[in-house]
Amino acid sequence: MVRKLECECAEHYEADIDTWQLFQDIKHFFEDQVLSGVYEDVPIDKPYYVWQDGKEKMIWYADKWYKCKACGCLWEFSYPDFPAHGEVRKFPDGVYKGRGY
């Protein structure tokens, strides 16, 4: 008998991370999903923000990407650096789209 992976990606949504407790909850959720084999930790290969002013260049990357093995949804997880918020972004088709900066 083959066990089919099931996910809850359709029920989850993007989030602005504005509290330490929310950060911990989301972090534990993703870690549990990886341990259960539903999500995989994906190497980050694209920045979400690139800015250049003369010689100075800033490139910002998310802290983690996770991909659902069941539906292919890609999740971007940017940790907060309080007072700056973090966020979780969802790419249901599995294709990363930057912010267009």
The total number of structural domains is 1
- First and last CA, distance: 48 Å
Sheet/helix structural class: alpha+beta
**Tally of DSSP β-strands:** 7
Main sheet summary: 5 strands, antiparallel
Widest beta sheet: strand line-up: 1-7-6-5-2
Protein described:
The chain is α+β, with helices and mostly antiparallel strands. The chain contains one helix and seven strands, in the order βαββββββ. It has one helix at 20-35; strands at residues 15-17, 39-42, 49-53, 56-60, 64-68, 74-78, 86-91. The strands form two sheets. The chain has a five-stranded antiparallel β-sheet, with helices on one face. Strands 3-4 form a two-stranded antiparallel ribbon. The longest helix is centred in the first third of the chain and has 16 residues, at 20-35. The protein is globular and about 55 Å long. The N and C termini lie far apart (48 Å).
Using brief descriptors, characterize the structure shown.
globular, alpha+beta, about 15% helix, 5-stranded antiparallel β-sheet, 1 helix
Quick take:
With 101 residues, the protein is α+β, with helices and mostly antiparallel strands. 16% of the residues lie in helices and 33% in strands. It contains one helix and seven strands.
Secondary structure elements and their pairing?
Blueprint: E1 15-17, H1 20-35, E2 39-42, E3 49-53, E4 56-60, E5 64-68, E6 74-78, E7 86-91
Antiparallel strand pairs: 1-7, 2-5, 3-4, 5-6, 6-7
